[in-house]
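Backbone Fold Data
Goal — fold tokens
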Amino acid sequence: MDRRELAGFLRSRRERITPADVGLPAGPRRRTPGLRREEVAQLAFISTEYYTRLEQARGPRPSREVLVQLARALRLSDAERDHLHHLAGTPPGPLPGPSREVRQSIVDLLHRLPEAASLVLSATYEVIAWNDLAAALMEDFSALPRRDRNLIRRAFLGPHRNGRPLYGVSDADEFIRTSAQHLRAAAARYPGDPEVTGLVDELLAGSEEFARIWAAHDVTARPTLCKTFHHPLVGPVSVNCDILDLADRDQRVVIYTATPGSPSEQALRLLSVVGTQRLDVPG
């Protein structure tokens, strides 16, 4: 255990986080940047005295559980989490679970793409951020409980499986194969996460199709370059599909754009005006 390096690392990570970042009131004027030691201790569910001793390079070796709690409290990236464990002399174990926290810069990026339907998926295909056009093209995710924002669950277990595919997409069969293969890879990265294992068990029990794909043990999927959404208001919308991997969060930014000058571009422009309101409801 490198106490001095560990102390400096904890202090540097604490000082970069503002109270607003973790939902705490700013309170009176602060003498130092970032969070106070007692606030980090509170977020990590440890005593202020213990955390203070760690930052003063005189604390005992923290347990793996304490390191996990500190990593969450300090919002460490995966690389920083591993570094924290190595400094403490405890090799990092499996990742605690897929990250659902989206960097503010990524959220800002989504809203700076008003002509592209854009969203962020977690490692388990949960929609965790989106812009207005994505909500208009697909659905208003803000109106859904978190459980129903998981596209894998919706694709395999949703009522549409007996008829029209989710969002009327043209590549429904390819999507379900790809999502199942990505979920298998995620399950290997997060073997102890109850949400991941629970999702897999639910899909295995509820979908013969998922069980068949899962049994193939495939983890490599072909990228989808384009697809067509069959929207109930504006009809077919053909889009190019680009995916940006956020390696530090194990997330994907999905960006749908239409070919300039095409009918689909006009349809997206109409959706950007219409939003999520329904035009087929009598006034």
Observations:
- The radius of gyration is 22 Å.
- The chain has a mean pLDDT of 87.
